[in-house]
Design goal:
The complex is a heterodimer of chains A (497) and B (102).
Chain A lengths: L3 H10 L4 E3 L6 E2 H17 L4 E5 L5 H12 L3 E3 L6 H11 L2 E5 L4 H4 L5 E5 H8 L16 E7 L7 E6 H11 L10 E4 L6 H13 L2 E4 L5 H10 L4 E4 L1 H14 L8 E5 L5 H10 L4 E8 L4 E6 L1 H9 L3 H4 L7 E2 L4 E5 L12 E6 L6 E2 L2 E2 L7 E9 L5 E6 L4 E3 L2 E3 L1 H9 L4 E11 L3 E10 L6 H11 L8 E4 L13 H8 L4
Parallel strand pairs in A: 3-4, 3-5, 5-6, 9-10, 9-11, 11-12, 12-13, 25-26
Antiparallel strand pairs in A: 1-2, 7-8, 13-14, 14-15, 16-17, 17-20, 18-19, 20-21, 22-23, 24-25
Helix pairs in contact in A: 1-2, 1-8, 2-3, 2-6, 7-8, 9-10, 10-11
Chain B lengths: L7 E3 L6 E6 L7 E3 L2 E2 L1 E2 L23 E3 L6 E6 L5 E3 L2 E2 L1 E2 L10
Antiparallel strand pairs in B: 1-2, 1-5, 2-7, 3-4, 3-8, 6-7, 6-10, 8-9
The chains are: A alpha/beta (497), B mainly beta (102).
Chain lengths: 497, 102
């Protein structure tokens, strides 16, 4: 099913409810539907085969997402926090494309071949211009809904492909149409280029819940917005939760309208969720585990699970707070060994998933198997009751603050330094970020200064990819086939949290 | 009629519309209000009336399925007719509410 049908149904059934923005003056569902069609017509006329979005969160995002759907073009939000070089490289890969770019970001991305830049302000004006309209009966062509770039262990980021039927399968199987009451409002602070940012729009629209954007996260701004907009639902990356709790405690702010907080993107430190459950007993907590490649959530630890676990004396139940809950009913999850053999409960292996929402596909490469099973590259195990516990990535990809960081990319930059003979970059456990970036250097002669090496990385990549921990060794571990064993270093250097 | 996943259909005798979410195994005719549904882009047939045997109503956002053929549709617009396949009434899919995670 096409994602445009989700909006069509919502606009038809609750046209006057506010879809995006403030309760007073926000964009209602009917207007969102009309504007999205105008957006579609306007974008299609610009030429190009893909709609790119380079900008902060705001109402232009759902308009661009649905506008692309109406135009039958894939929607590709890019990470504006990348270095100019990296951002331009990704943008070039989307050509021929039309790119909606925040006015103040245009200078960073101008002049890329095959890309037609349109300022966000012009796009927003076009959305409300009645001159732009799409033929009502034209069924949009094009099967790909969204392209999201995600980093692997080495090399260029891969473009994960999400087709319309994957996304809608996820939405209609996990959300009740119009299941939200008029008071519900979701605060979105996850970035546009993250799968959670896309699914938040689709599930919010389908359920009838108002979307409120927080373009730049600070814990203070989050609490301000949550209070001012009477936010009932929010999704946070684990690193945000502790900081938000600090502000609430400091201010004595109870956020009485808050009903549910969901989190995901990385491991939640146990002390943080325990503190949250004690401070906010009336709030439903939900842990969601999912991947870009699976259209977001595939397993959920629900509010009842949280409450049962925190109150339990039974260690097998208590430990569920460290799990990602049970797979969604519409999916199958298995744990398999290195030969693909099925493993029993209690044994650690690779998490495999199968279901209608699982895409498991990149541009030019399908990872999903012919029988529909998708190897996630995450380690994990299932307990006797079917609760899933997820460990680290099996492929050395670092997951920092919910985002993939490629160790190979950082190694390549460090290797360019004349003082570096060899280097391994890996993730180490970190309470705040889930994982932090660590570098192990084999120097040429005397070790270069850490400041110099850090500056070297910062100059080429974004600052969040700069290693926070540095080690110097005489040699790095390799196996017989010459593969760098980052895992060995990880085991040596990991300190228990 | 080719009931491909994602294909859109409308009732000939009321306002109901539906999208196929799971295809049917074997030949199947999707009906509403006692008459075959037509493709959304096709012209609406004239002069047909709602059959009293198939007037239980279609609710928007609900999923309806047929055990035998495996066909499942999502109602995208409500109507006074009710859905059937090959004359057999579709059943309502009772969905278990999941905690919102996005």
């Amino acid at each position: 099913m096409h994602t445009s049908v989700l909006l069509e149904m919502a606009a038809g059934s609750f046209p006057d409810r506010v879809a995006v923005g403030s309760h007073d003056g926000g964009l209602c569902f009917d207007a969102l539907g009309v504007h999205a069609k105008a957006a579609g017509a306007w974008l299609k006329a610009k030429g190009g085969e893909t709609v790119v979005f380079i900008g902060m969160n705001g109402s232009a995002l759902p308009l661009a997402l649905f506008g692309s759907a109406m135009a039958g073009m894939p929607f590709a939000p890019l990470n504006y926090r990348l270095s100019n070089t990296d951002l331009r490289k990704l943008l070039a890969r989307t050509a021929p494309s039309v790119a909606v770019v925040d006015d103040d970001m245009i200078s960073r991305v101008s002049g890329v071949d095959g890309v037609h830049i349109v300022p966000r302000s012009a796009f927003e004006n076009a959305c409300s211009d009645p001159a732009n309209h799409i033929d009502e009966h034209e069924t949009p062509e094009g099967d790909i809904a969204v392209l999201l770039f995600t980093s692997g262990t080495t090399g260029e980021p891969k473009a994960a492909v999400l087709r319309h039927h994957h996304l809608t399968a996820y939405v209609i199987s996990s959300v009740e149409f119009m299941g939200s009451d008029e008071e519900e409002a979701a605060l979105i602070s996850v970035p546009p280029y993250h799968i959670a940012g896309i699914s938040a729009i689709l599930t919010g629209i389908y359920g009838g819940r108002r979307l409120v954007y927080l373009p730049a996260f600070t814990p203070e701004a989050w609490v301000d917005a949550a209070a001012a907009e009477r936010i009932t639902h929010a999704m946070v990356v684990p690193t945000m939760l502790g900081r938000v709790l600090d502000i609430m405690e400091h201010r004595g702010e109870k956020l009485p309208h808050l009903r549910a907080l969901s989190y995901g993107g990385g491991p939640m430190p146990l002390p943080v969720i325990e503190r949250a459950l004690k401070m906010l007993p009336q709030v439903d907590f939900v842990n969601a585990y999912g991947l870009t490649e699976t259209s977001s959530t595939i397993a959920v630890l629900g509010p009842d699970d949280h409450r049962l676990a925190i109150a339990s004396e039974d260690p097998a139940i208590r430990r569920r707070l460290g799990s990602v809950g049970q797979p969604l009913p519409s999916l199958e999850v298995e744990i398999r060994g290195p030969e693909g053999e099925l493993l029993p409960a209690g044994e650690m292996g690779e998490v495999y998933v199968r279901g209608e929402q699982v895409a498991g596909e990149y541009l030019h490469r399908k990872v999903i198997q012919d029988d529909g099973w998708f190897p996630t590259n995450d380690s994990g195990w299932l307990d006797e009751d079917g609760y899933l516990y997820v460990g680290g990535r099996l492929d050395d990809v670092i997951v920092r603050g919910g985002e993939n960081v490629s160790p190979g990319e950082i190694e390549d930059v460090l290797r360019e330094h004349p003082g570096v003979a060899d280097v391994a970059v890996l993730g180490l456990p970190d309470v705040q970020w889930g994982e932090k970036v660590a570098a192990v250097i084999v120097p040429v002669g005397a070790p270069p200064s850490i400041e110099e090496l850090a500056a070297c990385v910062k100059a080429k990549l974004r600052s969040t990819k700069t290693p926070e921990t540095w080690e110097f060794r005489d040699a790095l571990p390799y196996n017989e086939t010459g593969k760098l064993l980052r895992r060995v270093l990880k085991a040596e250097l990991s300190k228990p949290l | 009629m080719e009931l491909k996943p994602g294909s859109r259909w409308r009732s000939a005798v009321c306002t109901a519309e539906a999208v196929v979410v799971r295809p049917a195994k074997g030949a199947a005719v999707l009906e509403c209000g006692g008459h075959p549904m037509t493709a959304l882009t096709a012209p609406k047939p004239e002069g047909l009336t709602l059959s009293p045997d198939h007037s239980g109503g279609v609710a928007v956002g609900k999923r309806y399925f047929d055990e035998e053929t495996g066909l499942e549709v999502l109602a995208s617009k409500p109507g006074t007719g009710s859905l059937a396949v090959n004359g057999r009434a579709l059943q309502l899919r009772e969905a278990k509410a999941l905690p919102s995670s996005d």
